Amino acid sequence: MDHRAYSYYEANAADISFEDITSSEKNARILRWLRDGDDKISHFSLGRDSCVQFSIGKGDNLGWLGYFIGRSVKIQFLDIWHLNPRGWEPQWEQQIDDFMFGLARNQSIRCIRAFHVRDYESTALRRALGNLSLLEKLHYGHSYITLDGYSALGTLLESGDCKLKKIHLMSSNIDDDGVAAFANGLRSIGPFLRELLLPDNSIGNEGLLALVTALESCTSLKRLDLSDNDFSLAAAGLGSLSDWLQTVVLNLNELSLEYCAINDEGLQALTEGAVNHCKDLNLAGNDSITASGFRYLSTSLQSSSCRLEKLCLGAMNIGDDGAEVLARGLVGNETLRFLHLRDDEEEFAITPVGVNNTYLSNHTVQEFWGIFDEPDEDEDIDESVVLYAKLNKEHPEHAARCKILMNHTHLDMAPLLRWELKFVPLAVRWFERAKSCTTLSIDNYADYRRRVLDESEEAFQSRVLTALYEFVRGMPKKVLERRDELALVAAYDEKIAMVRDESNRILRILKKRLREDVDERDRKIAKLEEENKRLRGIVESVRKSLED
């Protein structure tokens, strides 16, 4: 369509009556601000809704609006909502073209977000995009774009005129064919693209396969959001996504696949690449995954290659079996910081059993819900889970020792006896380092902090002496005979002398009993020898009688 010459706007801009080209005082005031270069307008919104800055109505001349936006050097963010006012049908397309004609001259806009736009408006906008040299982010939301529209978008990206760093197409009718249509464009901007968000677009297995092929050049990608698509039959596509993550020189910060109907087979195909090459993985809402599927995830969490720091599993039917499988995956994991389960109906507590299990349990997870906040009163959340997570977050270097002291009032020393007295100096040093747990505190929500281990110094010393005493008392006899090594125990505290005296007393008793046992054994042996001698005499007498 024909446009008024740009020279027309240039010639009349200084004297134009804003009341004649706008539908309201507010819109007239905004055009005046744009013309005069008001510094406050860096984020501009327009549309037929009343909530935007420039609410389009009958009487608004979009050609002038486009002209003033085009020459603005202040606007960096532009939001477009419902460009077509009701009752504009006869002149609507001409107004859209005039607006985009002016917009195309802008050299300051970095981000455009278009919501609820139809295909004609989207097509006109794409024609303007190629001229916006500073544009970095493009967002379409709840818009109707045809297959030809996505092909045109791909062509624009291929042209090199539009080097976008972020593309967000939400609920915009892409489907598998649409992905294939603009895939070549993604390849062209791959080295520049940082974020690609395609949620709720009816993408399935074929579209995912086409997308992964296009992503091969996207070596700078940090965020990929494919939420609310249907991957129930996309094991092949998810496997391809996993392979891409593993083969490309890429470390994705965030991968979102929530509510994608992923099942056990799909999770198996995805897990290795996602866990080892992403920091943030969102699988919330994929309630078809069972404990069998979580086993693949658990195995990858235990891998030394795991890179995952945040894992979202809300709104999933985890159940007791799934919780147990996931808990095994956390054992030994050194990267995970946030495990989000808040939307899950299932709840489970982390209760370590045995000192060794406590030591090997996870000491890195810092958060179990969407926001680390005080649990609601109606939520049945184990207080120990909150405490462990806060301990991991605020005192990670002390977490393991504090949890051992918190969960095991009595430390069973029997498993350590095989180390004999070599263990004693190690135990002394461990208790010396663990003593700080009695002074540490953590945030307790209500504007005060609580102590991690509510135990006095006397109680702690008593615990130390009890543990060492039980160790010495339980040592085998051969260890007790090495009196020179007992000096290592005495070096810890003068009170250990009591243990040594008791040990010596026990040793004397044992020696006395041993001597008594030896004497008794000798008497029995002597008696047996006498009996044996007597029996040999009888045998000899019988033998001689038979010979006679």
Explain this structure to me?
It is a single chain. With 548 residues, the protein is α/β, with parallel strands linked by helices. Helix 5 packs parallel to helix 6 (147-159), helix 6 (147-159) packs parallel to helix 7 (175-189) and helix 17 runs parallel beside helix 20 (496-547). The radius of gyration is 39 Å and the shape is elongated. It is built from 20 helices and 14 strands. A 12-stranded parallel sheet has the order 2-1-3-4-5-6-7-8-9-10-11-12. It has a two-stranded antiparallel ribbon with strand order 13-14. The protein has helices at 6-12, 25-36, 62-71, 92-103, 119-129, 147-159, 175-189, 205-215, 235-247, 264-277, 291-301, 319-330, 355-360, 383-394, 399-407, 423-434, 457-473, 477-480, 487-490, 496-547; strands spanning 43-47, 54-55, 77-81, 111-115, 137-141, 166-170, 195-197, 223-225, 252-256, 278-282, 310-312, 338-340, 441-443, 449-451.
